[in-house]
Amino acid sequence: MEAETTLQPLLSIVPAAQNNINTKFIVLDKERVPLEGNHKTCRALVADDTAAVHFQLWGDECDAVEPGDILLLTKGIFSDIRNNFLLRAGKRGKLEKVGEFTMNFVETPNLSEMRWASHPQRPDKYVQQGVISTHSRLFESLM
């Protein structure tokens, strides 16, 4: 049996190139499923009791995950994908449904709606530079 993983609150995550995020959150909303090349991807708005963030789902996850699902992410990554900061499982991470509907959450701040900048003394680290939106936006209309 694996040692119990320490979960971190969403508010404590920062962009990085490593899969090291272990957290639990509830899915608040999910966009319609677009196709990206040969791969199905979609985004979901997820949150815990400290912050919200956009989460990228791949392939079968797009159909399996629904609003109200409580998910456990191990070895996840929060990074910039085409000028969008998204939390995701990545190649080495794991996403698992652990419950539904009953979890405290907040919708702000939304970490995907922050401006992130390189740390002045540590270019491999990011710091919050500003807030793009004072409220957690759902998804822009795809029309």
UniProtKB/TrEMBL annotation:
GO molecular-function annotation terms? DNA binding
Q: What domain of life?
A: Eukaryota
> Which GO BP terms apply?
double-strand break repair via homologous recombination; mitotic G2/M transition checkpoint; response to ionizing radiation
InterPro entries found in the cross-reference section: NA-bd_OB-fold (IPR012340), SOSS-B (IPR051231)
Alphabetically ordered keywords of this record: DNA-binding
Query: GO CC terms on record?
Result: chromosome; SOSS complex
This one is known as Nucleic acid-binding
